[in-house]
Amino acid sequence: MGGKQTIKYLGEKGIDLPTEIKKAAVYSTLCNLPASAVTLKLKKNLFYKNLFIAISATVPPMESELVAAGEGAFRTLIE
């Protein structure tokens, strides 16, 4: 499970976490969004760019304005 998924799960469960879960540690790799956008724009990655756009359109909006702003900026970069 990824760092974002783990944090989301823990936050949603809150005090209702299973008793087996005592602690959690997460980390996520850094992502250079401008460089990723440039890579997705390459002709050889058109399939992945279109897939990313299609999948991201189905994801509910992020609650954090900062995350939502970053996501919007990334989509703008690759389109």
Automatic annotation (TrEMBL):
It comes from the Bacteria. This is Uncharacterized protein.
